[in-house]
Amino acid sequence: MSCKSSKDEFIQIGEAPASWKSLAELRSGLRPTAEFPGGLPGEGQARPANTRRDFLSLMGFSLAAAGLAGCRAPVQYAVPTVAGTDQLIPGVANFYATTCGGCPSSCSLLVKQRDGRPIKIEGNAQSTLFGGGTCATGQATVLSLYDGERLRGPLWKGKPATWQEIDQRVGESLRAAQGSGRAIVLLSGTITSPSTREMIAEWRKRYPNFRHVVYDAVSYDAMRAANLEGFGRAVIPHYAFDGARVIVGMEADFLGTWLSPVEFARQYAQSRRPERGFALHVQFESGLSVTGSNADVRVPVAPSELGAVAVALLRRIAAKAGVAGVPEGPEPAVEARKLDDVAEQLWRHRGASLVVSGVQDQSMQLVVNALNAFLGNIGTTVDLALPSLQRAGDGQAMAALVDQMHRGEIHTLLLHGVNPGYDYVDSARFLAGMEKVALAVSFSDRRDETSSRAGAICPDHHFLEAWGDAEPVESHFSLAQPVIAPLFDTRAMQDSLLNWSGSDTGYYTWLREYWRKNLFPRQKEAPDFDAFWDRSLEAGVVTLAPAGPPGTPPFHGAWAAAAGAIVEARRQALAARRDDRYEVKLYESVALRDGRHANNPWLQELPDPITKVTWGNFAAVSPQLARKLGLTEGDVVSLRAAQAQLQLPVAIQPGQEGRTISVALGYGRKLVGKAGQDVGVNAYPLMATRDVTLQKTGRRDELASTQTHFSMEGRPIALETTLEELHQPEEAPEAAATLWAARPEGEHSWGMAIDMNACTGCSACVIACQAENNVPVVGKDQVRRTRIMHWMRIDHYYSGAEENPASVHQPMMCVHCGNAPCETVCPVLATTTSSEGLNQQVYNRCIGTRYCANNCPYKVRRFNFYNYTQNPDFDFNMESPLGRMVLNPDVVVRSRGVMEKCSLCVQRIQWAKNSALQGKRELADGDIRTACQQACPSEAIVFGDLKNPASRASQLHRNRRFYRVLEELGTRPNVGHLKKVRNPLETA
Amino acid sequence: MMSPIIQTAADEGTPGGLAQILPAPRWVDGHPTLHQITDDVVRAMEARPGKGWWICFAISLAALGNLGVMVAYLFAKGIGIWGLNSSVGWAFDITNFVFWVGIGHAGTLISAILLLFRQQWRNSINRSAEAMTIFAVMCAGLFPLLHMGRPWDAFFIFPYPNQRGPLWVNFRSPLVWDVVAISTYLTISLVFWYLGMIPDLATLRDRAACGIKKVVFRVLSLGWNGSHRTWSRYETVSIILAGLATPLVVSVHTIVSMDFATSLVPGWHATIFPPYFVAGAIYSGFGMVMTLLILTRQTMHLERYITMRHLDAMARVLLLTGSIVSYAYATEFFSAWFGGNLYERYHFINRATGPYAWGFYIMVLCNAITPQVFWFRKARANVAALFVASVAVNIGMWFERFIIIVVSLHRGFLPSSWAMFYPTVFDVGILVGAFGLFFTCFLLFIRVLPMVAIWEVKGTVGHGAHRMALSDDEAAPEVAHG
């Protein structure tokens, strides 16, 4: 473990920013080395004499820690208070606003920093775009900060070097490039930071032969091209799902991975509240996505048919709008009546409907634009005036760059936030091109498929260590500030760029100057810039009035030609169709997205929201196809196309279109780190392919699923209702008789309501819970043995025909029964119910008979079958001192042989109670938010005091849709669910 | 039935007359003299063991060694080495526990209840049956310890006085009842077994020439002198202990069944469990007694004392208890159907058609169908048939517990949590190891202690009544010839 190596490695104190109020003391006062186990607890610094105050506060803390945490608080890694500051109080968490760097969606975050370490990501509720929500990937990024695979410092030709050395060599290379007539290229992912974009623009002035190529592994450039053609702007619109009464999605997983899922999930939940209006959602897609699983009407359509569906809809809408010119063509293989109904609904709600498509095809996007234009959605639900800046990749520029690299036209190549050696469709060609570049410089934080071939690696900070800003949607800004001093000898990419362009300012100064010049003048509230800056830094988000004149040019795309192209393409596809050819659909997985987070064990172990498979990808085939080919789950098949072939196990996916095989991207990394290496298969080589053949290999590779049975077997578990039913008069429910004596009641009665209608299944709560409660990662083998440790799981059930079933996602954790079956059977009273309604697990007392888990009808108890922490057999994050830095000191790390389960974040309850007590005020509703509740972008989870009739949880407990799962057993849970509402097309 | 036994030299070689006067002894073949009985029983202990014994002992010891190694590994690593998972929290561990507890019940039934009912046929078999009980309860007691996640904290389960505030065990938990039941059971069984052996230990003491053997038996026989007064007190104590042990036959397995019956797991939550489990316990116990006795009577040449009539009687018990168990199986299915509970109904459909249906049919074949052959006298008179059937009963009863535990757990209320249990090498190894422990103990037992109750068998041959009339020497010890 490098933490144990020399202390110099960790000391990196940049320019101490005087105006950074919040963390200035941290930087100058607290030496970062002190945070490391194995490092030295503040050697050479005199510890102030202990005062009585210190003694009392330490004693109070120890008592609280012992009482809350029980046996094994990881005391040895707590931060020694070498020098106190008024900002850093041991045991008290600080929250800092920043911006997520997990993907270009750039969500605004609040980061919980405890004793100098960021330990938990939360959403920034002040953000007008994202609310307080996050996604699973964003939640997990805090673990990536403590990834042991991160480089400790810059590398030159694979060997450790100093920054001076690197700066000198890169400077030489850049100077040589200027004279050579060959280009300098920065190849980056989408950069949402306006200040960085300006810096890159400056580079263009400084180096005339400099170019910037933006490359997204999963590209949205067809959409940008279509908008350029249709509206004159190469942008991605900013969508308003909350304004839509009818939503039609075409292969766009906007609740899972597409564009800005946190924002969209939030909007979607708002538009689908049964108590307020309920939008109709129709989804056309090939594989079952998170979005499709939430749709009221989901139509399985092969990728080759999707264009025809769009054209068929266009034909109907155009007819209603009185526009002529839609080319004739055969109807798609979808029930015509269904299309009529969808068109009718869209038309009825014109101006308040929305059609989105994630298909990477310009014609398709033009047709979608035409649909939205004819429906009058431009300017209402589709905003092009303030567009989204979250994806800016340009596939053509990338292809051109690869060609130029091969022709030797590129001298210096800078790579930031990209890994084309893994995710480019022809990665071998890209890497071969890199050989012909004089110098390739990567800003990657590790040796990966691309950076390992680069001449220099200049590791960038993790976003939690760095300054930055973002403008995910035009005029919506979000600031990023470091919440920990850099762990390693890394340097911000912007600092490197500034250095190499000869500037002597640091990025922090640049950032401030950029904000002073560009943002400050656009606002009126703050009188001087410092006030504006401080306020922005504290809030994290700034929304400014649009810079330019509002208004969107009218749609003028050649939609008829595009529709004609689609009709023609489909005709050809139909003619070329062969029975032994299948279509392949690649998609981003909810956990790993494009693969950049592959070394994050939390994400590897996050069950796929649909199939519940962890640790690897699979070929999703329809049940019909599986029967036809004699495939069973786990059979390894070979998918062969002209360019590539992959071998991966089969998952039988109800609702999968019959001829389509879906494969997740992001897996099969060859060089990323221990956790992600060779997990699954890299599907990017099939990116340019549609048709594949499929052969059984005869091998088997058992999937590691956390759920293997998806039918409710007619049991009343995840209940549904319809809008009609909700409007009928209510019958008074019968009070259930009980034989149990009433329990003594405390001041509060904690409870929760989970709205299955709002829950999309996105799984952010699962990772949030894992991060908050120190839930261990157990690995593929243990998951196969059904021993996953997640306290929070999302059960997924299907109902109806397997060709196209209805889905329901049911978040399930300990429901904190009033009459808990686990409690009566424990021989040693290791699980008890508190006077406040919490079912508590006493780890110290547990001897591990597992009787409680057997008797738990909800099966939410998790047993430590092995010692999962500090165990070389389970070398994920908890084995290394670095990885353990993410642990929440407020929650005990459980040892081998004890049972554990959801505590309703008792540490948060306790913390809120204490702060209320200290502030001499009553605990207010909303003071306590459990980790799952905080993470949920659609606010499906509400925690509160059931004794307070005004609390939101109480109100939801009185909601008509409220019920308790397995209530008939007499368990009297305090956590209940709200029924899912179906909105069938016919009645909508 | 128990009478002082006085044996004199006059007994030797006085056959005919007595036989004509007295009815032929029912539970011993032929007319062995009392001395002959002692000799026959003690032969196994005094002669060098045969090849068969050594082979059996070597195998058992190997299995026991395997148990030691596996338990050490289990304690070192954790119960993750078993095939258990979040849904199936118990499998082989508790299956083995219930299996071994059940086995023990036959011993107690034979020694206590049959004593109270004056069943003379118990006299030849009670000693081994009681030994079997002790060893089986030892094996059973192993598993609650092994199955714990943190066995080093196992003492938490005892309600011992402590200074941790009012920290007590949960008396509502059937596992606490188990602890009480099993420890009581082991204590009573041990005392009863030892007490029953004292007259025989005295016999051994008297036969032993010198050395350690003599010392050991002298100490163990507690100064037994065979006087009428001793005998009289001895019989009183026996009856009292039998009275104490009798409720245990019913209570222990009732409590074990409550581990399941008081839960809410479909397939466990059933009121029929206590009687069903008790019948099953006696059934499996008699199965095991039968297996052991057939083996020992063949190898130790005790056919004279463990007669075909004994085997016949035991076969009848098997038939009866087997039928009760079969009835319970049927009742479970009936109530699942008749009760109309969705989860219960699914459970029984799953039991008969699910992934573990093969286990269910092994259970039905072994437990419900096999004993039906004992309706036929021919089957009851055929040692091979009896042996095969008794082994089948043991297999069937193990599967019964496996079915009850694993099949109920693997598909509980929420289908999202349905899972499969696949045993690992450690599950199987520890099961085999427990048999190693059991058979090692049993094989040592038949070498060092009289495996047939000598004094009780002597009581059944009828000499006593005859001799009583002839002799006036009350306290004459049998030393001289013993």
Description:
The complex is a heterodimer of chains A (988) and B (482). By secondary structure, chain A is of the alpha/beta class. Among the domains of chain A are: 146 residues, Dimethylsulfoxide Reductase, domain 2 (3-Layer(aba) Sandwich); 124 residues, Beta Barrel (Barwin-like endoglucanases), CATH 2.40.40.20; 235 residues, 2-Layer Sandwich (Alpha-Beta Plaits), CATH 3.30.70.20. Chain A has 28 helices and 41 strands. The longest helix of chain A has 19 residues. The N terminus of chain A is likely disordered. Chain B has 482 residues and is mainly α. Classes of the chains: A alpha/beta (988), B mainly alpha (482). At the A-B interface, strand 32, helix 24, helix 25 and strand 36 of A face helix 6 and helix 11 of B.
Q: Order of strands across the biggest sheet of chain A?
A: 5-4-18-17-16-6-7
- Largest sheet report of chain B: none
Mean of pLDDT of chain A:
88
What would the CATH topology of the domain at 50-115 and 138-183 and 247-449 in chain B be? Formate dehydrogenase/DMSO reductase fold
Do you know the CATH architecture of the domain at 50-115 and 138-183 and 247-449 in chain B? Up-down Bundle
Rg of chain A computed from alpha carbons, rounded to a whole number of angstroms:
28 Å
Q: How large, in whole angstroms, is the Cα Rg of chain B?
A: 24 Å
Q: What proportion of the residues of chain A is helical, as a percent range?
A: 25-40%
The percent range for strand residues of chain B is under 5%
What is the tally of beta strands of chain B?
0
Classified by CATH, the class of the domain at 50-115 and 138-183 and 247-449 in chain B is Mainly Alpha
Low-confidence stretches of chain B: 1-20, 465-482
H/E series of chain B, N to C? Answer: HHHHHHHHHHHHHHHHH
Structural class of chain B: mainly alpha
Overall 3D shape of chain A: globular
Instruction: Indicate the mean pLDDT of chain B.
Output: 86
CATH topology of the domain at 748-982 in chain A: Alpha-Beta Plaits
